[in-house]
Amino acid sequence: MGRFTGFTPEALNFLQGLHANNTRDWFKENQPVFEASVKRPADAFGQAICPPLASLTGLPHKARMFRLLRDLRYSKDQRPYSARLQMAFSTLADLPESPTFLFDLQPDRLSLGFGVKAFSPVGLEEFRKRILKADGAHLAAALTGLNAEGVRLGEPELKRVPEGYPRDHPRAQLLRRKGLVIWSDFPADDVLSEDLVERVVAQYAGFMPVYSWLAGTQAYSAAPGTAR
Question: What is the per-residue pLDDT for 71?
Answer without folding.
Answer: 84
